Amino acid sequence: TASDTPLLLIEDVVKRFGGLTAVDHVSFTVKSNSITGLIGPNGAGKSTLFNCITGIVQPDSGTIQLDGVKIQEKSPNQIAQHGLGRTFQTPKIFRGMSVRENLAFAAPVQHGERPVSTLIHPQKIKEEETAVQSRVEDTLEFLSLDHLADEYASGLSGGQRKLLELGRVLMLDPDLILLDEPMAGVNPALTNELLDRLHELTNRGRTILLIEHDMDLIMNHCDRVVVLHNGQTLASGSPSLVQDDERVIEAYLGD
Ligand code: ADP
Ligand code: MG
């Protein structure tokens, strides 16, 4: 990929629900190895846009490209295989499984799950199992969850669950990670830990698009900011530029 090709391109995307235009001709790009913040008042269309990108809902019109490939007619699974991972506002973890099991179960579909290949390639399956196990251990360490590895997910704090959900996404080794309000309800110490991990992920070549309410946090940690309001792109650019934008100030004061 040429360095000026954006990892994610959103062009003129529209999504209507009956008479309501939730996403109204939105356009922006996300550069590789960056953290982009998506902000806007409640109901602005942020989660709907995420659902369009991840294939959960189909946009009515517009273009969505991931690494130069049109993805808006693909299934969520195909889009995930193409290098996109996401978390949800409410973490989707298995509460009755341990932290370690939650991570292992998030690994991509393995040879071993198909009976025929089990007979033909027993050695290959062993190798894959070992690879998943070592990936689980790396992820536990990366997110400082090692000491909780054998705890049930149901026993974790809200912030720890968010870390675990990020871990489940990382098991898929995505290029682009979409995070829907990852810091909401997370205590300050864990928020800092999470932010630190996000920066480390961009150092390791990953790209992050995150929805967040906390304006200070967005301004201090994002390379670029996109502001949605009533489904439309109100402003986009560097944090300092967006922060001083009259329309952004008005939208937030009027909320
Ligand atoms: P945000 O995440 O910015 O708070 P949403 O994307 O959740 O905003 O919602 C944008 C608008 O679309 C809201 O008015 C919401 O009520 C509406 N909406 C979202 N999902 C649906 C749906 N599945 N059916 C009908 N309306 C929806
Ligand atoms: Mg939302």
What spatial order of strands do you see in the largest sheet?
6-7-8-3-9-10
By CATH reckoning, the class of the largest domain would read Alpha Beta
Strand content: 15-25%
Order of helical and strand elements: EEEHEEHEHHHHEHEHEEHH
On the 0 to 100 scale, the average pLDDT is 89
CATH superfamily of the largest domain: P-loop containing nucleotide triphosphate hydrolases
The count of β-strands is 10
Please name the CATH topology of the largest domain: Rossmann fold
The end-to-end span amounts to 40 Å
Q: Please identify, by name, the CATH architecture of the largest domain.
A: 3-Layer(aba) Sandwich
| Estimated helix fraction | 25-40%
- Residue windows where pLDDT falls under 50 for at least 5 positions: none
Oligomer: single chain
Query: Any idea how many domains?
Result: 2
Specify the structural class. Answer: alpha/beta
Shape: globular
**Major sheet summary line:** 6 strands, mixed
Radius of gyration: 19 Å
Q: How would you sum up this structure in a few lines?
A:
With 255 residues, this protein is α/β, with parallel strands linked by helices. It has helices at residues 46-54, 76-81, 99-106, 115-120, 122-142, 158-170, 188-203, 215-221, 239-243, 246-253, and strands spanning 8-17, 20-30, 35-39, 61-66, 69-70, 84-86, 176-180, 207-211, 224-229, 232-237.
Written overview of the protein:
It comes from Haloquadratum walsbyi (strain DSM 16790 / HBSQ001). This is Probable branched-chain amino acid transport ATP-binding protein LivG. InterPro entries: AAA+_ATPase, ABC_AA/LPS_Transport, ABC_transporter-like_ATP-bd, ABC_transporter-like_CS, BCA_ABC_TP_C, P-loop_NTPase. One of its GO terms (cellular component) is plasma membrane. Belongs to the ABC transporter superfamily. With 255 residues, the chain is α/β, with parallel strands linked by helices. The protein has 2 domains: 1-83 and 174-255, P-loop containing nucleotide triphosphate hydrolases (Rossmann fold, 3-Layer(aba) Sandwich), CATH 3.40.50.300; 95-173, no CATH class. It is 39% helix and 23% strand. It is built from 10 helices and 10 strands. The chain has helices spanning 46-54, 76-81, 99-106, 115-120, 122-142, 158-170, 188-203, 215-221, 239-243, 246-253; strands at 8-17, 20-30, 35-39, 61-66, 69-70, 84-86, 176-180, 207-211, 224-229, 232-237. The chain has a 6-stranded mixed β-sheet, sandwiched between helices. A 4-stranded antiparallel β-sheet has the order 2-1-4-5, with helices on one face. A hairpin with a 2-residue loop joins strand 4 and strand 5 (69-70). The model has no long low-confidence stretch (mean pLDDT 89). Bound molecules: adenosine-5'-diphosphate and magnesium ion. Adenosine-5'-diphosphate (ADP) binds next to strand 2 and helix 1.
